[in-house]
Amino acid sequence: MLRRLYDWTMSMADHPKALWILAAVAFIEASVFPIPPDVLMIPMILAAPRKAWLIALVATVSSVVGGLAGYAIGQFAFEGVGRPILEALGKGDSIAAFNDKFNGVGFWAVLIAGVTPFPFKVITIMSGWTAMPLGTFIVTAIIARALRFFVVAGLLRAFGQPVRDFIERRLGLVFTLFCLILLGGFYLVRYL
């Protein structure tokens, strides 16, 4: 089953609507969706390395715009939408304490969350809820998401075929490592 999913994802990389699908995933991941855009972005770049920079740009722009949606959720709909999302991620008990810490380190929180596997939606919602200056949020989100996606794109573009060969030979191991990283991100959200 894993091989079929991988093959399907790789075939989507050349699909005429692949960039639109990536844009949608990156947008909703930054505000409500738990799966990062890397799941689609990496196979897209491996299948079409010549489009690496375009793919990274689409992921960056869509993620930042999605981050603005997360910011709006935090600012205008925290109780009805933001709080339930954070509670689903295990942050319900620590929202007030996180608010006090976040105001002091907001720039760094957005930067770190934007580059790491830490769920970006937590930071986007908290940025709106704590009234982080919108300009600071936008600039930091652009830097963080561009850094994350363009570094991945550059590495895959430079070393794509060996990376692709490795992934295809050791698909189970790669999938297991990806899941461990994803679970580690969720663990950090829950216990930070």
Automatic annotation (TrEMBL):
Q: What are the VTT domain coordinates in residue numbering?
A: 35-155
Q: Which UniProt keywords apply?
A: Membrane, Transmembrane, Transmembrane helix
Q: Can you tell me where the transmembrane regions are?
A: 53-73, 105-131, 137-159, 171-189
Species of provenance: Salipiger pallidus
Coiled-coil intervals in this record? none
How is this protein named in the record? Cytochrome b561
What are its GO cellular component terms?
plasma membrane
Cross-referenced Pfam families: VTT_dom
Give the source's domain of life in one word.
Answer: Bacteria
